[in-house]
Amino acid sequence: MQKHKISILLAIVVAVLQGENLAAATTVPNSNSVAGSFINLDFESGSTTAGLEPFGFLDWAVAAPGWSHSDGADTQIVYNGDTHVGITQWFRLNDGLDNLFDGNYSFSFKSGAKTTFGDQSWVNAYISQIGLIPAGTTALQLRSTGPLGVWLGDVQVPMIALSNNAYTGDISMYAGLTKELRLVNLTDPSTYYPQSIATVDSIQFLPVPLSPSAVFLLIGLLGLPILRRK
After folding, report:
1. Do the bridges between strand 122-123 and strand 126-132 make them parallel or antiparallel, or are there none, so unpaired?
2. Binning pLDDT at 50, 70 and 90, where does residue 27 land?
C-alpha cells in the first residue's frame, strides 16, 4: 500500500512538471511544434567509406548528414585526413587519431578566403542546421577546441567553459522554438597564418531540471506518510 501511495505522489509531481513545460512552450511567441528535429549532433551518422574518386574526398551527405555550411571555394567537399594548405576554408570529418572526442567521429573546420584567386574576402567558416529546440530545454552543451562561436538565429549564445573541453550556454528562452543552430570558426580575418581550427562534437540540448515549485511539492508529498505515522 505504501509503495502504491508513493507511486501516486510521484505521478502527481510528473504531471506538475509536464504542465510547467507545456506552459513554457506555449507562452513563448512564435513557437513551432511541427518542425523537424536536429539530427547528427554527435557526427556519428557520418561515414568515411564512400569517398568521391579519385582523391577520396567526401560528399556532405555522406560525411555530415543534416549539416549545411558556409560558401566558398573548396567547400563542396569534406576532407578525411589531410587537408589542403591554401588560404581558403576547409571542412574535415575526423576519425582515428584525428578524433579528439567521444565516439567514432568529430568535425573540424577552418576559416579562410572565399577563393584563392579573385575574391579573397574573408569568410568565417560555419556549419549549421535548422531544427526544433525541445520544450523544456535549458542549456546547449558541446565539446570543442579552437575558436568556436555558437549562434541560435541571429543571437550569439554565451558559452561557459566546463571541464574536458566541454562548454555550456543558457538557451532556456528558445525552448519550443524552431531556430538555426550555427557553429562558427571565429578566427580573426587578419590572421591568414596560422589559421586556427575549430573542432566540435557531442552537441546536446539539456532538459529542464526540477523547478523549485516541483521540488517543494515533492518534498511535501513524500513527507506526508512520515507525519501520519507520528
Report:
1. unpaired
2. very low
Find the helix or strand (DSSP H, E) in which 123 lies: strand 122-123
Angle at 70 between CA 66 and CA 72, to 5 degrees: 130
Quote the CA–CA distance of 54 and 56 in Å, as a whole number: 6
Retrieve residue 16's grid coordinates.
Answer: 506538475
- Asked if 192 and 87 count as a contact pair (C-beta separation under 8 A), the reply is yes
Can you give the pTM of this predicted structure? 0.75
CA distances from 112 to 64, 67, 126, 150, 195 (A): 20, 19, 11, 18, 8
What percent of the chain is predicted at pLDDT more than 70? Answer: 70
First-to-last CA distance in the chain? 18
Residue 196 has pLDDT above 70, yes or no: yes
Which tens digits make up the pLDDT trace of 130-143?
Answer: 999 999 999 999 99
Q: What is the rounded CA–CA span in Å between residue 172 and residue 140?
A: 9
Other Cβ atoms closer than 10 A to 45: 15
Distance from C-alpha of 230 to C-alpha of 223, rounded to nearest angstrom: 11
Under 8 Å between Cβ of 185 and 125: yes
